[in-house]
Automatic annotation (TrEMBL):
Membrane spanning residue stretches: 12-33, 45-62, 82-108, 120-143, 163-186
Highest taxon in the source lineage: Eukaryota
InterPro entries: 7TM_GPCR_serpentine_rcpt_Srx (IPR019430)
UniProt lineage: Eukaryota, Metazoa, Ecdysozoa, Nematoda, Chromadorea
Keywords: Membrane, Transmembrane, Transmembrane helix
7TM GPCR serpentine receptor class x (Srx) domain span: 17-191
Protein's name in the database: 7TM GPCR serpentine receptor class x (Srx) domain-containing protein
Organism: Pristionchus entomophagus
Length: 194
């Protein structure tokens, strides 16, 4: 296929899937405020997670077509990383929510029932710190329309943040979430079999 047709096919796929994801995530975030059973710390954390995922998809769907050498493209990439880390930390908060409910109810009551807003604010502040890192010289993150990939700048700073902040920290958090969730599932299965 000639390149322009490839571009149109890729754009159509990105737009269709992205728009569906945007609608589903923002609907999910809104439902957590409408459904009485979700007016809990879990529901609030889930709403933040859905909002962050929806914001990333808005960027991927509507803003990824900017020339990757432009300042606007690099700043859009920074904003997407802000929401990526917000979603990642909120996912960690949701896993801690489940774990503390099952194993540490006094911490659940103190942190998640009484201070959920503070936990969410803390996540937002940590993500803002991550966001500021990308203002460093050569720490750019952008969508490359030629390869259809999001890329970090090929600079020492770009390589460092890609490895340490994105890959290493992201994998560590995902592994921790996975372990906490496995422990919770084992505990619930044992409780159900008794």
């Amino acid at each position: 296929l000639p390149k322009p047709i490839d571009d149109r096919i890729a754009a159509g796929i990105i737009f269709g899937l992205g728009l569906a994801g945007v609608l589903l995530n923002f609907t999910g975030a809104l439902l957590t405020f409408r459904v009485t059973a979700l007016r809990t710390s879990f529901g609030r954390l889930t709403a933040v997670h859905c909002f962050a995922d929806g914001a990333i998809l808005v960027i991927f769907t509507f803003c990824a077509y900017e020339d990757h050498g432009s300042l606007l493209s690099q700043k859009i990439g920074q904003v997407s990383l802000y929401f990526w880390f917000l979603g990642l930390y909120t996912h960690f908060g949701i896993a801690l929510n489940r774990f503390s409910l099952l194993f540490l109810p006094w911490i659940y009551k103190e942190v998640f029932q009484r201070r959920t807003s503070w936990l969410i604010l803390f996540n937002v502040l940590i993500c803002t710190c991550h966001f500021c890192v990308y203002f460093g010289d050569g720490c750019d993150f952008y969508y490359n329309a030629e390869t259809y990939f999001w890329e970090y700048a090929d600079t020492p700073c770009g390589k460092a943040v890609a490895f340490w902040l994105d890959l290493s920290l992201g994998c560590a958090i995902c592994i921790t979430v996975l372990l906490l969730d496995i422990i919770c599932v084992v505990k619930m299965r044992k409780s159900a079999s008794v």
